[in-house]
């Protein structure tokens, strides 16, 4: 079947229902494995001691916060360009999870910053741009809920998401563009990894766990949004019988 067929809410609803258990179970298994690798198997860092282990939560959270916003921007383009109903619904489904990851990234970063920098918060370039990302998530949700007409709300939200997407590369390259307290990337596609193998494996497993969790939660939320927005359709009314 053509994948574009799943742009129809009814087809997407059924597909999402089948995928959610697989991603949810995968997230749980990968999270347990990643935490065991990161907090039990990984050695103590010779510079930061035990506090460095927070990266196994902080880094996946930060990456997912940026990645989800880019996915929202992709759906915003589809919504503005093709007016597909599922695109707008997916943006709405993605925003709360992206905001959660951004909040976790800021929280864990602050916990790491206290013993490392001596303060929970510094107006560091990466920290500040990540805070802006959290505000963009909140701004999208507030804007779309403030406009009663659903079509207008979806268009306004999509425009805000696209404008705000410029902040994602700013977050990523901030440590290179400005003199910042935040340490550089430990994993680089060009220079490779500066981490011990078990540390890198733990981080990658936790990233995959965060991704699977996000997919499961977003699909579940998308199904709820579909039921609300398509409540007038015959197929949704038949589900309640």
From TrEMBL:
GO molecular function (one): heme binding
UniProt GO BP: cytochrome complex assembly
GO cellular component, one term: plasma membrane
Topology in the lipid bilayer: Multi-pass membrane protein
Cellular localization per UniProt: Cell inner membrane; Membrane
Chain ranges of the Cytochrome c assembly protein domain: 7-182
UniProt keyword annotation of Cell membrane present: yes
Main location: membrane
Signal peptide from the UniProt entry: none
Chain ranges passing through the membrane: 20-39, 51-76, 88-107, 127-147, 159-178, 198-219
Keywords: Cell inner membrane, Cell membrane, Cytochrome c-type biogenesis, Membrane, Transmembrane, Transmembrane helix, Transport
Chain's role: Required for the export of heme to the periplasm for the biogenesis of c-type cytochromes.
Membership in a protein family: Belongs to the CcmC/CycZ/HelC family.
PANTHER family in alphabetical order: CYTOCHROME B_B6 PROTEIN-RELATED, HEME EXPORTER PROTEIN C
The protein, known as: Heme exporter protein C
Organism for this UniProt entry: Lautropia dentalis
């Amino acid at each position: 079947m053509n994948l574009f067929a799943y742009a129809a809410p009814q087809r997407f609803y059924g597909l999402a229902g089948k995928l959610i258990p697989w991603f949810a179970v995968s997230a749980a298994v990968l999270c347990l494995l990643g935490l065991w690798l990161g907090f039990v198997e990984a050695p103590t860092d010779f510079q930061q001691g035990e506090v460095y282990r927070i990266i196994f939560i902080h880094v996946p959270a930060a990456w997912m916060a940026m990645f989800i916003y880019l996915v929202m921007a992709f759906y915003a383009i589809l919504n503005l360009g093709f007016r597909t109903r599922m695109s707008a619904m997916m943006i709405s489904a993605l925003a709360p999870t992206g905001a959660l990851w951004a909040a976790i990234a800021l929280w864990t970063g602050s916990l790491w910053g206290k013993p490392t920098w001596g303060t929970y918060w510094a107006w560091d370039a990466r920290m500040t741009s990540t805070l802006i990302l959290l505000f963009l998530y909140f701004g999208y949700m507030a804007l779309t809920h403030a406009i009663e007409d659903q079509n207008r709300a979806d268009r306004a939200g999509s425009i805000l998401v696209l404008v705000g997407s410029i902040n994602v590369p700013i977050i990523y390259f901030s440590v290179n563009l400005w003199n910042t307290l935040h340490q550089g990337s430990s994993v680089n596609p060009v220079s490779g990894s500066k981490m011990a193998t078990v540390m890198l494996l733990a981080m990658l497993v936790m990233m995959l766990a965060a991704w699977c969790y996000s997919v499961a939660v977003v699909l579940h939320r998308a199904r709820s949004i579909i039921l609300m927005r398509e409540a007038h359709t015959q197929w949704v009314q038949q589900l309640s019988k």
